[in-house]
Structures are given as structure tokens and as C-alpha cells.
Amino acid sequence: MHRAAAAVSRALSHVALPAISAAGLRSFMTPVSDAVSELVGRGRSRAGGGPAGASSVPASSGRRPFATGDVFRRIAGNLDRHDIFERLVPVGVCLLLVAAAVISSLPVVQSASAAARPAASAPALGAVEASASSDPTASPEPTDAGNLYLGDGSIPNTMQNPGVATDAKSMLLTYAVQPGDTLNQIAHRFELATPTIYWANKAQVPNPDSLRPGQQLLIPPIDGVLVKVGAKDTLDSLAAKYKVSAQDIADVNNLPDTNVVLGQTLLIPGASGGPMPASKSGSGSGSSSRGGGFVWPVAGYNYISQYYWSGHRALDIAASEGTPVVAAAAGTVVLVGNRGYSGGGNVVWIQHGAKLYTTYNHLSYWNVRVGQKVSAGQRVGLVGHTGEATGPHLHFEVWLGYPWGLGTTADAANPCNYLAAC
Q1: Other CB atoms closer than 10 Å to residue 160's CB: what's the count?
Q2: Minimum mean pLDDT range among 123-137, 143-157, 324-338
Q3: Closest C-alpha among 265, 203, 270 to residue 230
């Protein structure tokens, strides 16, 4: 009965009864108390050895034997007609809760053949796992759901240091040198500038003429220079050193953020490692692979500040302001003038044959006119930094069609395929 009382207490704690005054509550409970007392007394009389079923009320008392209906009649007599339903409904609910609590407190009787009940302490997740097991009768082991990790704990969390997993070495191809190969031929095969191949393999190919069959060369995906991040290097410092944008470095190397890691290898797009050593034979560093070499367009200067790559379809040759710029090959001038800030500033365009063109951009001065015939090596202007230029240099382009005729750089070619010592 103690368990039943506790269950009733818990049940009643969730039942919202209508407000009843103290006087009303006493008037309501008085007949209930009297009836219960009479029931108890009558039960005790029977337990004392009286005849079974005999009434414990003396005949001379004038009271008739107790009937169950008396309780409800006495209760009804003490209730106001207007609030009888208001008060009896919650009482009925309480009586139902009492009955339910008493029934639930009774012990469960199982047949001898009944299967054992699952342990009440097993968590819901353990029950699900047990149902998926090959042995349906296996008891699930207790699991701390708060510490449960549904993934594979052996997978490393690379996001803790994402830069470590990003290295340009994973983007490099390997090429085995064939008999008769030169750096220029290999560069042309992969549509790269010759210095890109040289600087990527300088440690094992200090001289462009020292290639030997079977030698393994690293081939970058685009033109540029491979660098190893030093202790003081940052993305911005590398961008400033090689005169490229930090965003270009991040995009080419798939960097998740602006952080770089000590010892990490990065590909600096379009950057130059400096002048290449001169080839003794002339074939190692850049005679044209497409019939006839172009003349170097900047007299006395061969420092390439930015090579040809997907984001820069040209060759930047750094030189002092006013340095002479010459025609790379004989042809006819088709355009002279200023094409605005984003169009190259002061420019000269020259046509060489049916579909071959060269353009000379950022000039400080030009000394040719449209329709004029020029020879290879003839001066056409002076180095400057007009238009979108961070410093004096020649922005040199080679086109296999009228420049910008398609509205894109689809017809732009790598100038190093035409220039010696590029």
C-alpha cells in the first residue's frame, strides 16, 4: 500500500483541481469521513468473531445497516446543486488514479514458460543495437549515450591543421627524360615555359645541357616557381617577394585560408626564379620549336618577372623606364595607341603572317604608325608602366589570331615557345 500511496501522490501532483474554499472542503469531506469510519468499524466488528454477514449496528440504535449508496447520498446532500459537477468530476478522476495505482502496484504473475523480461536498466540505444545483432537473445551492453561517437575514430581530424594537408608536391607530375630530349622540348610538350621546368629541377639539373636519358623530372601543372615555406614566410610576404597576388597563390595551391606552414611546398604562379644559365648548344634553353626564333623584345634585359600561366597569358619582362622595346619578328603594325587602364595602356600590335601577332604593352612611348612595315629587332617604343602596371616592364603577348578577336584569351600562346633563352 505504501507504493500505491506514492503512486497516487505522484499522479495527484499533475492533476489541476478546481479551487475549493476551506469551508466547502470541510462540508464535502465530512460525510466521506463518516462513511469511511462506519466502514472501518463495521469491518472490525466482523473481524471480532461476529456472525458472517451480521450487522454491527444494534437494533435499538435506530440506525439501519450501512449501504454503499449512503456515501454518495450524504456527499450529494452537502453539495450545492450548481457546483456538484464541478467538484465531483475531479474527485472521480482521483478515484480512477487511485484504482490505477493500486493495480500497478500488484506483483506481476508470469507463467513458467514466459520469457524473461529485458533488463530495465538497458538504454534505448543498446536495445536498438541488440535488435541488429545476429543473436536476438544477446543482452546489450550498457552504453554511455553521452560519450557515443558514431563515426570511425581512426579518421584523423585534418581540420585541426588544414595547411599541413595542402602541399604543391601532390600536384606535380613525373617525366622520364628520353634520348635526345632538351628542356625546351619537354617544356613545349607540357605547354610550359622552359624556366619552369628548369627551376623545378635545378637541384638535379644545374646545367640545362646536363640532361640524361632516364632522369626523372618534376613537371608543375602551370608556369611558376616551387618554394619551400621558411620560418618567417607568410602568404603576403611571398606574394610581395614574387610580385603576384596572395589570392592567386591561395587559389593555385587550394589553401583553405591564409595560413602557411613551415616546410610546406607552394607553387607561386607565374613567378620567376631568375635568369637561366646560358645553354652552350642553344638547344637546351629555348630555340623556337615552331620554326625560327623571335628576337628578345627588350634590349639588354632578360629578367622575367612573371611567366605565362592560366591567369596571365603573357610574359612580363622587367626593365628600367625608357629601355628600348623592339619587334620580335618582321611584320606590319596593325594597332598603335592607348587602350586604357585595363587594356594595357600604350600599346603596339604587330602582325606576322596570316594568324600570328605580337603585342607590346605598358609603353611610355611609341615611334611607329599603323600600316608601317617593321623588321626583327627594330625599335617600336620604350618601356613604361602605363595602364594597369605596378612598375616599369614590358607585357609581351603572342596570339594565334587577331588579339582579343574572340573576346577571350583562348588564342593567346606561350611566348616562351617562340623566344630564345626564355
Answers
A1: 7
A2: 143-157
A3: 265
Q: What does the pLDDT read at residue 184?
A: 79
Q: Note the CATH architecture for domain 304-417.
A: Distorted Sandwich (2.70)
The residues of the chain that CATH labels 2.70.70.10 are 304-417
* C-alpha dist (Å) from residue 232 to 225, 226, 269: 19, 17, 20
Question: Does the structure show a pLDDT above 70 at 22?
Answer: no
Fill in the amino acid letter for 88: L
Burial readout 269-306 (b: 16 or more C-beta within 10 A, e: otherwise):
bbbbbeebeebeeeebbbbbeeeebbbbbbeebeebbb
Helix (H, G, I), strand (E, B) or coil at 351: strand
Local structure of residue 415 (DSSP, 8 states): G
| pLDDT mean over 323-339 | 95
Portion of the chain with pLDDT greater than 70, in percent: 58
* Position 103 pLDDT exceeds 80: no
d(CA 228, CA 267): 9
Pick the CATH number of 164-269 from 3.30.160.340, 3.10.350.10, 3.40.50.300, 3.30.565.10: 3.10.350.10
Question: Which grid cell sits at 193?
Answer: 615555359
Alpha carbons 402 and 418: distance in angstroms, whole number: 17
CA distance readout (Å), 200 to 219, 245, 322: 7, 21, 33
Q: Decide if 336 contacts 368 (C-beta within 8 A).
A: yes
Q: Radius of gyration of the chain from Cα atoms? A: 49
Q: What is the mean pLDDT of the chain?
A: 73
What's the pTM value of the predicted model, to 2 decimals?
Answer: 0.44
Q: Cβ distance 315 to 307 under 8 Å?
A: yes
CA 124 to CA 147: how far, in whole Å?
15
The distance from CA 350 to its chain's CA centroid, rounded to whole angstroms, is 48
Residues 6+ apart with CB under 8 A from 365: 322, 346, 381, 382, 384
Residue listed under C-alpha cell 493500486: 102
